[in-house]
Every structure is written in structure tokens, then in C-alpha cells.
Amino acid sequence: MQARAETGEETAARPRPATALTPHARGVGPRRAADPDRSNRPGRDGPEDRVRRRARLGRRSRAAVLSGLVFFVAGQVAFRAALARRPALGDVEFGRKLDGLEARLATVSPGVGRGPAGPLVVMLGSSRVATGFRPDALPRLVGPDGREAVAFNFAQVGTGPQIAHLVLHRLLARGVRPDWVVVEFWPPFWASDGYLQGYLDSLNLAALDWPAVRLLARYLPRPGRLYARWLPAQAVPVSASRSALLSRLGPSWAPGFDPDRRLDGVDGSGWWAPRISVSDDDRRRLVAHYRGIYADRLARFRPRPTPDRALRDLLALARREGIGVAVAVLPEGAEFRALYPPESLAAVADYLRDLAREVPVIDARDWVADPGFADGHHLLPDGASTFTARFGRETLAPLVRAGPPARR
């Protein structure tokens, strides 16, 4: 068969296949303005398109910021409410001791906050009380109606009468009402008006409500500084409570973080045993260390107005609530007692004699021999048992049996 030759004109006249792309289909030519997807193609926006796009991105950014702010505020408000219910979330020492006390009351009471089956005895003070008052070593304490009392150690490390007043206030606000409160007197805490300012650095102000912070402000020379720290803590309680939260969550959440160890070794009655025993060499070393800290304060001891006012305020609060109060001077080792010159001993005796006109005062400074101490003023477990057993027999048992004074 003879092949048919094709001319150029015939080739040009042949229709293009249906699948071939025309210039319009490739997005060029007159139909470009009608392309609905062109605004999504980079580099092809017109001025009006860019304005609309920026407006759309601005709306999305504002919505994201607003949503984040709402979630942030809601989180702070929720945590603040949780902190009011469970202070342990932000206040390690007070909160966990409160949990321990409420758990103890719940075992003998139909409902926490309505009082235990028998009288409640709470002891307040510093680390000396925390290590020295051991409720499990008490004899059986019986109230005037024959019900057995519950005793709890609510001492907090490094605290004097100002914080003791605050603790009683906070317990009452929680509905926990002791029948008897024993308050520690220790001369170093009465020798200065300014000790509270240093303690505030370890206190989470987010955990304090307005009445509590006003109570503390009475004992500060510049209360405005306390309020200036309290307001931001209330506004951002999660941040203010980060140390307590990390202590609860554990070091794995923040490598390198040193958790709060103040409650390591605390039992269900609030008694704290950071050391079980010490060697004679360690005891001598620790006594020498604390001699350097306290010798000058004790040599010049005179009771200062601020701690005295805090104790008197605590006594007044207890009287209004019908709570009995006793003041106790816990044991000290012989070497530590030797730090008091005669003038300081006379000042201590005069102050205690004046207090004894209002409340029972128990001076137990020489009740425990030196081997019962870790450092001359903190009791070891055996020393704590010796002190607590005698304190229970000679002081608490008669007080609890007689019952607290009437409310006035």
C-alpha cells in the first residue's frame, strides 16, 4: 500500500487531542483572574488579598492569645480554690500536718471539724517541739467526762510565737478547735523583734487568706512589704507554690530540684525524728556549732515587745474561744544551759513568773540528760520519750482532767 504523504497544512489543521492542555487550562492568559485558587498560590496575591490574609491571621492570633489567657486565669482560679481546700498543695509543713491531724481526728470522730471523741491537745512551737513532743509516749489522758484525749504535735521548724498565733488562727478557720494548746517559750525567739521577716522567705503567701496575712502584718515593722508580696502570690498561686508542688511530685519532674525535707520522718501524731542517734563526737561538734549561733543572743537576753505581743494575742484568742493554754520551756542540755549568764537567767525567770499569773507555765529545761540530745537543744527519740512521758504525767493529765476554761 502506498503511504500517504501529509502536508504541513494538514498537520496544523488536525484537531488537538482532548487531553492536551490549553494556555487557559495552564492558568495563563485572560482567564487568570477567574482562577478561584490563585489566592493560595505563593507569590500571586494582589494587594487586597494580602490585606485580607493579614486580617485573617490577626483574628486567629488574637483568638489564640485570648484562649490562652482564659485557660491561664481559669487554671489559677481553680488552683486557688484547690489550695483553700487542701493547703498541703502549696504549704508543705502546715498543710501536711493539717492532713495528719484531720486524719487522726477522723479515726475517733464522726466528722472532721466537729472535734474528736475526747479532748484535743495541740502543741505549737519550733523544731525543738517538733523533735521533743512525742504523743505516742504520753500516758493515757482522760477528759472530765471520761473520754480519752487526742494529742498532736503541730510544731513548725524555725517558728516562734508569731507563727504559733497564725497556726491557731488557721486551725480555727478550718473548723479544728483544740481544747488545750501548749505553746513553747524559748528565749532566742523572744530576744529579737525581727525574726519573722526572715521566716517569711520560707512561707508560701499564696496559701494565706486576707485575715491570715493581716494577722502576720501586725508583727512587722513595714507591713506594706508583706502586702506587696502577698498580692502577686494570690494572683499567680501556681507559680508561688511551685516549690511545694515539686516537693510533692518528686525530683523526677525537675532534675536538680532539692525537695522540702522538713517532714521526712514525721509520724501520724506530728512528731518529727530527723535523727535516731548521734555519736559523742558528732554531738560535741553540733553543740559547738550552735554555741556560735546562740551564745551572743542568750548573753544579752531581754524579752522583746513583738514576740511578747504575739504570745499575748494568742492567749487572748484562746480565751475568746474557750481554749486552755499552757506555756512550756522544753529541755536543754547542760552545755546549752551554761550559755545563759545570771542576768539572762533572771530575765527568763521574771518573764515566766509574769506569764504564770495568766496561764500554767512548765519549766522543763533540766528534765533530760545530755545523751538525750542531738545538739544540746533538739531531743533524740529516747530523750523525747523521757520528756513527753513526764510532761504528760505531771502537766497534761491534770489539765485535761480538769477541762479547759470557759469561753470568755
Description of the structure:
With 408 residues, this protein is mainly alpha-helical. It has helices at residues 8-13, 47-85, 92-106, 127-132, 161-173, 187-190, 195-199, 210-217, 223-235, 237-240, 242-249, 280-299, 305-321, 334-337, 342-355, 381-402, and strands spanning 120-124, 150-153, 180-184, 324-329, 361-363. α5 (161-173) runs parallel beside α13 (305-321). The N and C termini lie far apart (133 Å).
For the structure shown, list the relevant keywords:
disordered N terminus; 2 domains; Rossmann fold; about 5% strand; five-stranded parallel β-sheet; 16 helices; about 400 residues; mainly alpha
Helix-strand string: HHHEHEHEHHHHHHHHEHHEH
Number of helices: 16
Radius of gyration: 36 Å
Which range does the strand content fall in? 5-15%
User: Helical amount among residues, as a percent range?
Assistant: 40-55%
Determine and state the CATH class of the largest domain.
Alpha Beta
Task: Name the CATH homologous superfamily of the largest domain.
Answer: SGNH hydrolase
Mean pLDDT: 84
Give the count of structural domains: 2
Predict the CATH topology of the largest domain: Rossmann fold
Shape: elongated
Instruction: Please state the second-level CATH architecture of the largest domain.
Output: 3-Layer(aba) Sandwich
Strand order of the largest sheet: 2-1-3-4-5
- Unreliable segments (pLDDT under 50, ≥5 consecutive)? 1-13, 18-29, 111-116
Spatial separation of the terminal alpha carbons: 133 Å
Main beta sheet, described? 5 strands, parallel
Can you count the beta strands? Answer: 5
